[in-house]
BON domain-containing protein
Amino acid sequence: MAAERSDTLIGDDVVRMLGAQGQTSQVLAQVKDGHVTLSGDVPDAAAKQQVEAQVAAIEGVRGVRSHLNIDSGRRSFGPRGRAVRDNPDGTDDARMGDIDLDENG
């Protein structure tokens, strides 16, 4: 029986794999006991499936929990796959008082 890989080594491989693909720049990964949890945004269903399959194939990964969202670009700007969120929580900053729209006040 081969020795289990540490979560740190698995995490290093996951980060390296995600970094090699420009379309997965909005993906976060957490590793616990060989199980990888993915969250964040990908540009399309094909990218989501590819990321999940590639992570599952990494040596030592015991399971993948995917919380990946397909980013339609509706609430973001920037190149497809490298979206920058202007309001990730969906709140309107002007209504929340974070931006002063009145130049005189």
